[in-house]
Design goal:
By secondary structure, the protein is an alpha/beta fold. The protein contains six helices and seven strands, in the order E-E-E-H-E-H-E-H-H-H-E-E-H.
C-alpha cells in the first residue's frame, strides 16, 4: 500500500519546526518525526539562514516526503520576526521545489481549524488533538515541532494530496489547484473590466 508522507514546516529563524507524518487513511496518521532546526541568535543572518537551509535539506533527503506544507507568513507587529520567518519560509519552499516536491501554504487559522475544528484554538488544544490523533503519550516538543506536525496534518486533511498537474506537468494539491483557478478567474475578470473601458 502506498502511503502519502507530508512534511510540515513551521518557519522560524531561531527555531524552525519540522514534522513528518504518514497518512493512514481517513483522519488517521502516524508520526514519523518531529524536531526543530536551531540557529544561534548571535550568528550573522546569512549563517543562520545557511544553518536552517542545511537542516531542511537533510530532513528532505532523509524522509523523502510526497508533499511539503509551510505555515503561510502574514503580518505581525514585529517586523524583524516577520522578515526572518518569511526568509525561512522561502528557503523551505525553494528546497522542496528543487526536488520537485509539491508545496502548499496554510495560515495559522487554517491549521487551527483543520486540526481542532476552531480557527481560534490555542496551542494546548492543538497539542491535545495531536496526541489523540497520533496516539502519543505527549505532544511533540518544543511547541514549534508540534506546530509543524499540525501543519503536516492540515495538508493531509485539507490539501488532498497531489491530484492535478499544472502547466509545467508538476503535481498540485487540490488546494493549490483551486487557488490557481481562482487567480485565473480573477485575472480574466480584471482583463474583461479593463477592455470595456
Amino acid at each position: 500500500m502506498t502511503t502519502l508522507r507530508v512534511m510540515g514546516i513551521d518557519p522560524g529563524l531561531t527555531r524552525c519546526g519540522v514534522g513528518i507524518v504518514d497518512a493512514l487513511g481517513g483522519r488517521r496518521a502516524r508520526l514519523v518525526q518531529a524536531h526543530v532546526i536551531r540557529s544561534a541568535a548571535e550568528d550573522p543572518l546569512d549563517q543562520r539562514l545557511l544553518t536552517i537551509a542545511r537542516g531542511l535539506r537533510a530532513a528532505l533527503e532523509e524522509f523523502d516526503p510526497d508533499a511539503v506544507a509551510v505555515e503561510r507568513v502574514f503580518s505581525q507587529s514585529n517586523i524583524s520576526t516577520v522578515m526572518g520567518t518569511a526568509q525561512v519560509s522561502g528557503i523551505a519552499l525553494l528546497e522542496a521545489a528543487e526536488r520537485g516536491i509539491p508545496t502548499a501554504q496554510h495560515t495559522p487559522s487554517e491549521v487551527k481549524a483543520a486540526v481542532t475544528g476552531s480557527g481560534r484554538a490555542d496551542k494546548k488544544q492543538i497539542q491535545t488533538v495531536l496526541m489523540k490523533v497520533l496516539r502519543l503519550d505527549a505532544a511533540p516538543q518544543p511547541a514549534d515541532a508540534s506546530d509543524a506536525v499540525a501543519i503536516a496534518l492540515t495538508q493531509l486533511w485539507r490539501g488532498g494530496g497531489p491530484v492535478a498537474l499544472d502547466a509545467t506537468g508538476g503535481a498540485r494539491t487540490s488546494a493549490q489547484a483551486i487557488w490557481a483557478r481562482a487567480e485565473r478567474e480573477a485575472r480574466r475578470a480584471r482583463e474583461r473590466s479593463t477592455s470595456r473601458q
